[in-house]
Structure formats: structure tokens, C-alpha cells
Amino acid sequence: MSSFAQLSLPQPSPKAMVMQTVGYTDITIDYSSPGVKGRTIWGEVVPFDKLWRAGANSATKITFSKDVQVNGADVPKGTYSLFFIPSKGSWTVILNKDASASTDQYKQDNDQTRFNAAPVAIANRERLAYTITDFTAEKAIVSMEWEKVKVSFEVACPTTRQTIEAIDKAVGSTWQVYNNAARYYLDTKDYDKCLGYANQSIALSNQWFNNWIKAQALAGKGDMQGAYTHAAKAKELGDKNPQGFFFKDNVEKALSEWKTAGNVKKK
């Protein structure tokens, strides 16, 4: 009885994946990465003015875990096939609702959005690659790079609105939840909303942490007397539980600085 061993060899265009979390949204791109291999890519391997599946082997897929905007157009959460129509001038970028569609199965009626993007010259990149860069909590830049060309588009995520909705839904019973909401608004420098949630947190339970959040919000509004008072309260309460007083150095530094800034005399 004879047996035949299967030979496994490297793929000419290996599978690749890039993922980035932007705020609450995971952006994932699954593709296959062909090489230049000394060929003329644009206009020959990939013809101009014809639909291209944005990779090799099968459909290139882009997935959004939450609703986003791509180049200003609303795109519901889900998986889409990604296509380009390269040209010597502006390229066309297409997100198609048939996530498994490659070039032969593509139907324009299934487009979720299509828009133009200008190609940019780059240093030679042997393998096609997708990158997700310049991201903040609210947006990211998705780019395709291959040979000496890069094409990019923006994905915007409604993180602020989603955060506010999450806060409004969550707050209710514990001082920690209100304090977390206060911390968020402190980070965004919305000191009035921060103080509102901090006061609710303190009303539920007078802790060093919510006093410290309130102190920073008051300092942000220029009320150094109030800031010093609540920082001093934070230190008083925190010193009673030193193991959990994880911002002790920050509080003590603020007390020193705010005493001078506010011309406050310690009682």
C-alpha cells in the first residue's frame, strides 16, 4: 500500500490581517498580500479603470464592529468587500455589502458607498499591505500601500456620542459609576458636567477619589480655593487607606501648587 505525503509550500500571496480599535469600534481588514516581483503593477498587473479586488486570491474584507462613517458616508456595522478602481488620476474606493464577492461576483447595486481618493507616491513597498494609522478615539486613516502607491480614506467613529449614551444608561446606583462618568468629562475638559457627576458620586459616598476628581474640575474652572479644599479632603480620606490611595503623589503635588496659586492658607 503506497502513501503520498502532502507538500506544504509558502503561498505566493499569503493571508494577512490588520485590526485596530478606535474608541469602541474594531476595524479589521482581511486580505492576501501579493508581491511586486519585478513586475509593473499599475496599468499592467492591475489594469487602470477596471475593478480590482484590492488584494489577491479572494475578496478583501473590511469589518466594522459598530456603525461608522467612511469618507463621510454612513456605514452600518458589519463586513464588506473592499474594491478599488485604479486610474492614472483619482481612484475609486468601493465598499460592497456582499462580503464574499470578488471581482466576478461584484454587483454595483450592492455598494454601500463609493468615493474618490487621490493616490500618493511612496517609497517602494514589495508586498501589498493595509495600515490603520493616525487614529484617535474618534477616527482613523485606512491605507492600502503597494509598489510605489498609497491610497487612503478616513473612518470616523461616533465615540463621544456612544460614551455619553453609555454613561446615561449606566449611572444609577454606585458612587464609582458616577465618578467614572465624572472622570470622562474631566478628560474632555467639560468641567461643568464633570462637577455634576462628581457631586452625585460624593452624595452617594464621600471618597478620596471623587473628591480628587472634583478638585481637578474646580481647578480647571479657576476655582483654586475650592480645588484646594477638595484636594485636602481627598488627602484626608486617602491617608486612612494608604494602600488604595493610588493618586497620593498627584494629590500632594496639587496641594502644594494650588496653595500658592490660590493664595490659600492651610487651616
What does this structure look like?
This protein has 267 residues and is α+β, with helices and mostly antiparallel strands. The chain folds into 2 domains: 15-156, no CATH class; 171-261, Tetratricopeptide repeat domain (Serine Threonine Protein Phosphatase 5, Tetratricopeptide repeat, Alpha Horseshoe). The chain contains 6 helices and 10 strands; from the N terminus they run E-E-E-E-E-E-E-E-E-E-H-H-H-H-H-H. The chain has a 6-stranded antiparallel beta sheet, with no helix packed on it. A hairpin with a 2-residue loop joins strand 1 and strand 2 (25-32). Helix 2 packs antiparallel against helix 3, helix 2 (175-187) packs parallel to helix 4 (208-220) and helix 5 runs antiparallel to helix 6 (248-261). The longest helix is centred in the last third of the chain and has 16 residues, at 224-239. The chain is elongated and about 70 Å long.
Distance between the termini: 96 Å
Largest sheet: 6 strands, antiparallel
Counting helices, strands and paired strands, the structural category is alpha+beta
Estimate what percentage of residues fall within beta strands.
25-35%
Mean pLDDT: 91
Low-confidence runs of at least 5 consecutive residues: none
Approximate shape: elongated
Overview features:
267 residues; 10 strands; elongated; alpha+beta; Serine Threonine Protein Phosphatase 5, Tetratricopeptide repeat; four-stranded antiparallel sheet; 2 domains; six-stranded antiparallel sheet
